[in-house]
Amino acid sequence: MARGKLRIHLGAAPGVGKTYAMLSEAHRRVERGTDCVVAFVEHHDRPRTETMLHGLERVPCRRLAYRGGVFPEMDLDAVLARRPQVALVDELAHTNVPGSRNAKRWQDVEELLAAGIDVVSTVDIQHLESLGDVVESITGVRERETVPDEVVRRADQVELVDMSPEALRRRMAHGNIHPPDKVDAALSNYFRPGNLTALRELALLWVADRVDAHLTEYRSEHRVARIWGSRERIVVGLTGGPEGRTLIRRAARLAGKGAGGEVLAVYIARSDGLPSASPKELAMQRTLVEDLGGTFHHVVGDDIPAALLAFARGVNATQLVLGSSRRKTWQYAFGPGVGATVAQRSGSDLDVHIVTHDEVAKGRGLPVARGARLGRSRRVWGWLVGVAGPPALAALLHAVDLGLANDMLLFLALTVAAALLGGLFPALASAAVGSLLLNYFYSPPLHRWTIADPKNVLAIAIFVAVGAAVASVVDLAARRTHQAARLRAESGILSFLAGNVLRGETGLEDLLERVRETFGMESAALLERAGDVEPWTCAGRVGHGRPVERPDQADVDMPVGDHMALALTGRVLPAEDRRVLAAFAAQAAVVLDRSRLREEADRARALAEGDRIRTALLAAVSHDLRTPLAGIKAAVTSLRSEDVEWSEEDRAELLAGIEEGADRLDHLVGNLLDMSRLRTGTVTPLIREIDLDEVVPMALGGVPDGSVGLDVPETLPMVDVDPGLLERAMANLVENAVKYSPSGTPVLVAASALADRVEVRVVDRGPGVPDEAKERVFEPFQRHGDAPRGAGVGLGLAVARGFAEAMGGTLGAEDTPGGGLTMVLTLRAAGSRPELRHAADRAAEPERQASS
């Protein structure tokens, strides 16, 4: 069944005409031939509103007593039974009187929508949950009746019913809203011009946000690339440098100059995945922009100006804020820079602001951690080689004269070794100490800090430059190696997640355990909530850390959308780990949604199976119910006829036909009801200990005398069964066996004990059933062979097996030696499984109390 559509008339305050607009809409729909009813409308004794109710069908309200008074409420059951195309339900945020089926009227509306009924409703802006604090600060009144924002956002249509504060106050003064004795108090309190203006602005902004969301969806669907300046949306281009905070604050001030301004910060990363910015600085800027009400975005692109402009046009931005270049003057020889290129390519539909900052012309290099990329032991050895190595080498070469060129090569080799071990700074120290020693011991004049030959000056300078270059290359290689290893690990994790997405293998708890192990945390939990003000609930949790009830209580939290978050406890993660954590969080949300979709699919399959059963039922009963009914109808008509004088024998025969038809109907309807109970899972066995000889004979009442032979020893142990279900199952088995047994050949019902089980065998000498059909005979609406339609609808064995399994037993079919079919019903002996009996007793206790 398709879900109904919800249309909401939203107003800034009471009295703007929401109910009047709703009733006007109802009259228009009725004139078009739509089946529209008034489920609940409160006219508050307003004459014009009450007049609009004339000509509309109204569903009578329920009257509920509460605290000495009687209050009208919408009769939800009556509306569902009436089943109109459209129902009018006033005051969506209304709290129902205690005793109603639902606590809130919007919950009643949800039931109507689920039943496929369109609903037209009304709500004031102050009744939205997320605006409760704002409205209280404006009016000084705390709204107690609220509706979740998500309910209103999900509406198919939201129509703003607007009225200026002056016009609303005039309506109030004329007595069109409140009785005359309350007008002065209302005008001087809630309906002050300032209050109404602020509430009107809230309503306009809320509707504008909704319209903007629909506009974004439309632009995406129709691939509109040109910017539509419908509202101010400002994009801030970040490089990861410290000037980013200045740019964000500047953009926030620009957005604050106009109502509804929005700030989007974007960082363009290179496609090779190697970070060129400080992760810590980016994390700080992300926090800043989110604190100022904006959003942070991470985009990949090697052409930074093109990526910035594509992002700005993709979000329909009107302004782009960039920082002045950090390049030094000579660096402009390599190109005009990002700011100038973006301004040149922006066109006439996008304004570009170049903002100055303290980092202008200080160079493009960003602070990065260098030594931390190498292990501690390597750095220690690097400093030992870089500082102590040159004096040791000088002492070694003091006794051997190899010439200045060879000496410099040896010192250079030592500098390279220091670079390979400890990175940049130990190598620079080695080059500096080595150059001093070369100058003092090996460059004429010896043992003096001067150099006589200019060629030696050049040689030493080249030595220092080569040492510094080698050290820089080794340090860069070490950092890139660390980054590559990290990215390789990240790619392995992301590949694992992608594989799980495709295969759908990992459960939520397994994924959370993987998160906990990957990041070395104490616990991991996935939290969710239904709305902005709803409490957080835990969808899944692993680990032994402290329990977390809200994301802000965790050491690390990663939001997933608006109402879900992955919370970790144990330690604080570095900023560079959040990228992979975000992938885990998104996958956790996918796993949770997938599990819920699987549950929905299971329910859908159950409904489909129910539909199949109902279809087969209709096909079956079309003949099997009408045949006995036709016979009963004919017999009764004949008996009531005054034109024919029936003899006693004829009258008895007609009455016997009526009785036989009624018995067939009773049996058929009983099986149909039993199958319905089994399919809906409402069979609750009342397990107790009983002797078979108390139940089995009672199951033979519907078969002819002499058609069944019993062999139920009195020495059999008692069984744990529901007597009523067992009797029904045995009756179906015996009736089926008698139906297919040859005339004059009785059916044998025999029972025997085997270990902790008791077997009841129903043996017939009929035609039997092939092995491939033995399981099929237990399916609903199955008749074996060429059984006539009058033999039943094929539910007897299906009901018998369902009742047997409900009692913890089994039912199967075997060949009878010498020909025929044997049904084997296996039951649990009393005391063999007490937990089943106790669980069934607990499940049935409410039913016993209700019946008592």
How would you characterize the overall build of this protein?
The chain is an alpha/beta fold and 852 residues long. Helix content is 48%, strand content 15%. The strands form six sheets. It has a six-stranded parallel sheet with strand order 3-2-6-7-1-8, with helices on both faces. The longest helix has 50 residues. It is flat and about 155 Å long. The protein starts with 5 loop residues before the first strand and ends with a helix.
Share of β-strand residues: 15-25%
Shape: flat
Q: Helix count, per DSSP?
A: 25
How many strands in all? Answer: 24
Structural class: alpha/beta
Q: Provide the gyration radius in Å.
A: 42 Å
* Major beta-sheet overview: 6 strands, parallel
Read across the widest sheet, the strand sequence of neighbours is: 3-2-6-7-1-8
Sequence stretches where pLDDT stays below 50 over 5 or more residues: 363-372, 786-791, 834-852
Task: Indicate the percent of residues in helices.
Answer: 40-55%
Distance between the termini: 39 Å
**Mean pLDDT across residues:** 78
Biased composition (Basic and acidic residues): 834-852
Region (Disordered): 832-852
GO molecular function: protein histidine kinase activity
Membrane topology: Multi-pass membrane protein
